[in-house]
Amino acid sequence: MKFVIEIIGKSIKEGKIHALIDTENLEIIYYEPEEMDNLVKLLNSDRVSIPELANELNLKNDQVELIIDYLIDTGRIKGIYTSDYAFVSDNALKNLIVGLVERTGKIDFHEISNELLISEDKVKQIVDELSRAVINALVPYRRIRIADLSHEVSLPQNFTLLLLKKLIAEEKIVGSLDMVDEILVIEQIVRVPEIAQVQSEKRKTRNK
User: Fold this and answer.
1) Confidence (pLDDT) at 104
2) How confident is the model at residue 26, as a pLDDT?
3) In the chain, which residue ranges form alpha helices assigned H by DSSP?
4) Which end of the chain has less neighbouring CB within 10 Å, N or C?
5) Residue 14's pLDDT is what?
6) 130-148 burial by CB neighbour count: b if 16+ within 10 A, else e?
7) Which of 156, 159, 155, 147 is nearest to 104 (CA)?
8) Average pLDDT, 10 consecutive residues per value, the chain (208 residues)
9) Which residues contact 123 (CB under 8 A, 6 or more apart)?
C-alpha cells in the first residue's frame, strides 16, 4: 500500500491526477477541478458544517478537514474553524458579524465571539479590518454623509454608523456626528495600525 501511495503521490505532484492522499485512513480522495472550484465558492460564501458537508460529499469528517486544510495551504480559502465543528471563511465571517451587529445594535467582541463560536481575537481582527476600510475611505474628506460613506465602503448604513461611533469613542476619528443631517464632521483621523493576523486554523483533532 505504501508503494501505491508513493506512486500516486508522484502523479499528483506531476499534475497527472487530481487527488489528495488521506494517510490516516489509507485512502485516495479523487476530485475533478470543477468540483473543487464549487467547494471553494461554497466555503467562501457561507458558514459550513463539517459533518453536513461530509455527508453531502460521502466522505469522512476528517477527510473534509483534509480538503479544507489543503485549500487553506494553497491560499484558495482563508478562515477559521468554529467550536461547534464548522468552517467559516473570513468573507462569510464579515457578513455574519455585520448582520449580528445590525440586529443587536452594538459592537461587543465578547458577545459576537459567543454567538458565532469563534475567538474574540478573530472578531477583533475582522472589525479592525472594517475599521481600516472606513478610515482609509475618510482620508480625503472633512465632511461626508453617512449614507455616502456606507456606499463607498459597501457596508450597511446602520453598521457604518455604529462603527463610526466606536472609532470616535476610541479617538481614532476626532470629529462629531450630526444626526439631524446624518453627516460626519472630521477634524482628525488616527490611522488604525496593522495587527497580527489570526491565521486560518487547521484542526488539531481528527476522526470526529
Assistant:
1) 95
2) 74
3) 2-13, 33-45, 50-57, 61-73, 90-104, 109-116, 120-138, 146-153, 157-169
4) N
5) 52
6) bbbbbbebbeeeeebebee
7) 159
8) 55 66 80 91 94 94 93 93 95 95 96 96 94 93 95 96 95 92 90 58 48
9) 97, 109, 112, 113, 116
The x, y and z cell numbers of residue 151, run together, are 456606499
C-alpha cell at 201: 486554523
How much is the pTM? 0.80
Question: How many Å apart are CA 149 and CA 137, to the nearest integer?
Answer: 7
56: amino acid identity, one letter? E
Q: What is the residue type of 118?
A: I
Q: Write the DSSP string, 59-114.
A: --HHHHHHHHHHHHHTTS--EEE-TTSEEEEHHHHHHHHHHHHHHHSS--HHHHHH
> Do residues 139 and 149 lie in contact, with contact meaning Cβ atoms separated by under 8 Å?
no
- The residue ranges of every structural domain in the chain are 2-77, 93-189
The grid cell for 179 is 444626526
Q: Read off the amino acid at residue 188.
A: Q
Distance CA 103, CA 111 (A): 12
The angle at the Cα of 150, spanning 145 to 156, to the nearest 5 degrees, equals: 130
SS3 of residue 177 by DSSP = strand
Taking a C-beta distance cutoff of 8 angstroms, is the pair 126, 108 a contact? no
CA–CA separation, 122 and 97 (whole Å): 11
